[in-house]
Target: HOOK domain-containing protein
Amino acid sequence: MQSDEGEESGPVCMESGTALSTDEFNRLQQQLIELRNQNYELIEKNKQLQSQNSKSNETFRFATKFIGRKAEKQTGLGKWEEEVNALRAKLTTQEDEFRLQQSTLLAELNKVSFKSSSKTKVFFFFLLFFSFTGVVFYSKFFYSSMVKELRRQVQQEKKRADQAERQLEDALVFTIFLQTFDGDESSCSASVLESDNVELIGRLAQLQKKHSETIDRLNMLEEENTLLRKEVSEKSEVIAEWIRNRPSGDSHTPSSPSCSSEVLALIASGLRIRRMFDIVRIDDSAAGIRDMNRKLQRMLEETLSKNLNLQKDIQRLLETNKNEMVK
Model:
């Protein structure tokens, strides 16, 4: 084809009166071949640039999706902080309610103390004080530990979000480098980004699982709190019923007007439970009082056993939370 073109161009040039030598013709033909080769090379480079542009666009879309997931995670952290604040408010309201109930029961006990014997007053006052103080202390300790644990989890989630942000910045840096590297290096960096994407998705699933477990634990704790309040109300009703149905002949006038001060002195000095029971056993004047003392003693023992079991459950939950955080 090239020789035919040269033969055809020879006569034309002769007719036009400007003859070309063979060297000039070969030189022009060589330049034409070089231009064609350069054209093919430019076409190949254009195809490579288009493929690199498509890969960089995919990486940019992945980074955009990752930013959206990070924003969703930050909203989830905000919800956890709101839940912690709600639990703190609930704890303060419950403490106020327990204090109000304690004050009302103490007032009723002071009214009844002038109509009952001094030893029975000491027992009831000690029982009420111990039960309500134990419930308030338990609820305060339980919710304070739970709030601390939730704060620790929120701080860890913030740290993880910061790490995810740094990983996102690294991914964007890789995207910038993709535009300068050749096809092989860009494919390697894309595979690295895909592996990082899979790892981050797995971590996000683990965080969501821990969040659901924390919500379930909070629901369980609220149910236990309602059960404790129900038990306290039942004990208050039993005490009020005994006060209403108390026999009139069993009351003993106090020996001195300083009986209530003696009761407060005994409780303030922190006497042992066995000594208080020994004081109550001295007065066996009425069968109704003995029966009520037995019932109240059983209730006190049940309350103590339940408090011990709840403390064990709290320790177990805290240990499981620590183990999960270590993992």
Residues 58-326 form one domain. The first helix runs from residue 2 to 16. Residues 62 and 197 are 9 Å apart (CA to CA).
